[in-house]
Amino acid sequence: MAARPLLAAGALNQACVCMPLRGRCVTVSRVVTDRRLPFLQSFVMARRGALAGVGLLACCLCWCVVVQPALATCAGGGGRRYDAMFVFGDSLADTGNICVNKSAAATLLLTFAQPPYGMTYFGHPTCRCSDGRLVVDFLAEELGLPLLPPSKRSGGDFRRGANMAIVGATALDFDFLKSIGLGYPIWNNGAMNVQLQWFRRLLPSICGAPQSCRAHLSKSLFVFGSLGGNDYNAMLFFGFTVDQAKNYTPKIVDAIATGLRTAIVQKLVAMGAAEIVVPGVMPVGCFPVYLAILPSSNKADYDELGCLRPLNALSVYHNALLQSRIAGLQARYIRSSPPARIMYADYYTLVAQMLHTPARFGFRSGITACCGAGGGEYNYEFDARCGMKGAAACPVPSSHVCWDGAHTTEAANRLIAGGWLRGPYCHPPILH
C-alpha cells in the first residue's frame, strides 16, 4: 500500500518568494561575557567525549546521506527506488547518536533528552531536537524505509540505513577551529570527516564485498548537508562579527564541497552510488535563540518580521556559494559512469516563507518558540529553555513553525521533506 503523501498535490507548487535582504553585513553583537559565554558553557563537551553539558545551540544543523526505496507515488509518474538511507550531519538529522553510550547522569544534562521533546510522535524523548520526527524521518517513511538507527549504537542492523549525524557537528575540523581561536571544547568528535570515517567502518557490515556494495549502493540516495551552521555558531558566539564569520564562508563551503567530492562522489560513485542531495542552511536570523543571544541595537538590522538581516544575509551568501560548487559537480558527474545525480535541497526559502507567512502553511505562529518558559518576546529564555525546569510546550506544537528556539517542529519538518521529495524546494526534486 502506498504511503500517505507528505503534502497534498500542489501544496507547495507555488512561486518561491525569497525573503528580502537589504543592507550590508554589520556587527550584530560583540558581547561575549554577558550573553554568549554562559550560553556556550551550557553545552561544553570535555575533550575525552564525556559530556560536561549540552545546550540548545549545538543542536543546530545537519548533514545527511540517504539510501532508500522510493514509492511509486512520486510526482512525475516514474518512481525511484532506493534500498537504504545514510544520514550525516548535526542536530537537524541526529536521531540519537548524541545519547548513545552516555551514562544516565550525562544524559540528564542534555535538554533535548528530556520531556517534552518527542511528545508529538514518539511519546517520549528520543534525543531528536524536535517535538517529533525530523526531516530525515519523513524521507525514510515516505520512501518505505524504517527510521534510521544511530550509527554509534552497537549491534544495529544498518543494511537499510544508518544515521551518522550528531549534535554539534561542524564542516570544519576541530583543529582548524582551534587555530582561529575557537578551541573552547564545545564540539564532540563528530565533524564531517569523523562521520565519514564512521560510515567507512560500517560499510563491511552493510554490504560486504565490493561487488555487493556496488549493487547495494547503486540504489542509494545521499543527502549531504546541511553543514556549516555550527561553524558559524562557534564564530558568532565567540565574539566574531557577522562580517568576520562571512570571511570564512568560502572555506566552510570548500570543506563541504571537498568532502562531497572526495568522500562521496569519487569513492562511492565508483562503488555504484549515484543519487546525492546537498541541503543548504536555514534563515537563522529568524530563530529565537539567535535573536535572543545576538541582538542588535540598530533597528535597520531587523526586517518587517523582526528577523536579523545580517544573519540571514550570511545564510544567503553560504547557500549561493554552495549552489555554485554543486553546479560544477553536477556538470562533471552527470557524465560519469554511472552518472551521478546531485541535487541542491533548499532549506532557506521554504522555512523563511513559513516563518514570514505561517497562516499560508497552516501555522498560527512563526518565530515564537512552541516550547519555553513563556518569557521574552520569542518564548525563549536561556535559563529556562525547552527541556529545563519551568519550560513547557505549547498545547498544539503543530501550530508552530519553531519548536524550541533553534529547531523546527515535526509539522514544519513534514513540509520540508515534502518540498524536497516532490519540489519545488529540491533541484531537481528527489522523486523526479
TrEMBL record:
CDD domains: SGNH_plant_lipase_like. InterPro entries: GDSL, Lipase_GDSL_AS, SGNH_hydro_sf, SGNH_plant_lipase-like. Keywords: Glycoprotein, Hydrolase, Membrane, Signal, Transmembrane, Transmembrane helix. One of its GO terms (molecular function) is lipase activity. One of its GO terms (biological process) is lipid metabolic process. The chain crosses the membrane at residues 49-71. The keyword Membrane applies. Belongs to the 'GDSL' lipolytic enzyme family. This is Putative esterase. The gene is OB_Ba0080O08.18.
